Amino acid sequence: MNQTQTGPPLVRRAGEPDADELARMLTGLTDLSRYFRFQTAIGTPPRAALLLRMLCPTGAAFVATRAETIVGHAMWAWAPGAETAELAAVIAEDEQRRGLGVRMLSVAAADAIAAGARYFLFVVSAANERSIRMVRRRWPDATVERDGTLLSFVAPARLPDEPEERADVVDQQVGRLEGGEVPAAGELRPVDDPVPAF
């Protein structure tokens, strides 16, 4: 492992200037990782319209970087239904299974809660066993509906790993986001389960 990978990636809010780096990260994903995240072909390089939706959603987007190279993306966007935010993340191949996906989802979840989300939606391929296990473990009270090859989980809005998140914990995590760049390792406690690629 080289020295640039010894520390945790930094998580910050994303924006349009991140388009080229995000395209590079998405292009480096395996076909399976891209399918699990998007459930469709996204092109190589990804289309500009897709990148814009990922970086400027109706909610908020975040990227994780190592030496200014994007290694992860998470976002939330308002979904149909009262006060429901859809959460999604995608992590570079070399960074998967290290807890970064759950930490980034925690950042997006805290931001969505602060914006008024009361429910989370996760749309997951029925073949994506790692993501299904992650949702069931982190949000055990989620309900699920199947639509063809997709599973839609709806859960009460709370941070992963916490059965009932106290308001002061949410305020603390959201407050750290307002300061700009945040060490990803400081967002959540260590995790021991696989990181989702959705």
UniProtKB/TrEMBL annotation:
InterPro entries: Acyl_CoA_acyltransferase, GNAT_dom. It comes from the Bacteria. Residues 9-156 form the N-acetyltransferase domain. This is Acetyltransferase (GNAT) family protein. Keywords: Transferase. Coiled coil: none annotated. Residues 179-198 are annotated as: Disordered. It comes from Kribbella jejuensis. GO terms for molecular function: acyltransferase activity, transferring groups other than amino-acyl groups.
